[in-house]
Amino acid sequence: MIPRLPLLAQSRNIISRAGPSCPVFVRPKSISSSAASTSTPPASESPAQANTDAAPKTHFRITLLRSAIGLPRTSSATLEALGIHRRMATVYHPHTPDIAGKILKVKELVKVENVSAEEVRTKTEQRADRAAPRGYTLVSRKGTPIVQRS
């Protein structure tokens, strides 16, 4: 039989205890309204760190790290709904509850980061970054193209 903690102990931020070998899970304490209303950064943060967090994080950057081969069809269907088709592919989605729910279904397979709207990249921009340099440069003078090796 699993011992239960009394209701009084649960009200002191202790959720439950499954047994003697399991740790006690503790709820994080809520921030008081007076502490949340202050907008000054903590003393441990440097001014450079405070400036990097100025842009609000509005999008998820989702990268598939593990394959869905051998997993139930629902996992691969969720990845397909997110727009991820192969390993190491990255997609960007805005913060919405339905996207967050999809991420939670495949959380063991993906890496998720919060990024600002300025960091969101289209598929074309991502492909251009991966492309190798051509090895030559096309230069045009008065309508006549000249090929130069680089």
From TrEMBL:
Keywords: Mitochondrion, Ribonucleoprotein, Ribosomal protein. GO terms for biological process: translation. Residues 32-55 are annotated as: Disordered. One of its GO terms (cellular component) is mitochondrion. GO terms for molecular function: structural constituent of ribosome. Belongs to the universal ribosomal protein uL30 family. The lineage of its organism: Eukaryota, Fungi, Dikarya, Basidiomycota, Agaricomycotina. It comes from Botryobasidium botryosum (strain FD-172 SS1). Gene3D superfamilies: Ribosomal protein L30, ferredoxin-like fold domain. The keyword Mitochondrion applies. PANTHER family: LARGE RIBOSOMAL SUBUNIT PROTEIN UL30M (PTHR15892:SF2), MITOCHONDRIAL RIBOSOMAL PROTEIN L30 (PTHR15892). It is found in: Mitochondrion. SUPFAM superfamilies: Ribosomal protein L30p/L7e (SSF55129). Residues 60-110 form the Large ribosomal subunit protein uL30-like ferredoxin-like fold domain. Residues 32-48 have a biased composition (Low complexity). Component of the mitochondrial ribosome (mitoribosome), a dedicated translation machinery responsible for the synthesis of mitochondrial genome-encoded proteins, including at least some of the essential transmembrane subunits of the mitochondrial respiratory chain. The mitoribosomes are attached to the mitochondrial inner membrane and translation products are cotranslationally integrated into the membrane. This is Large ribosomal subunit protein uL30m. Pfam families: Ribosomal_L30.
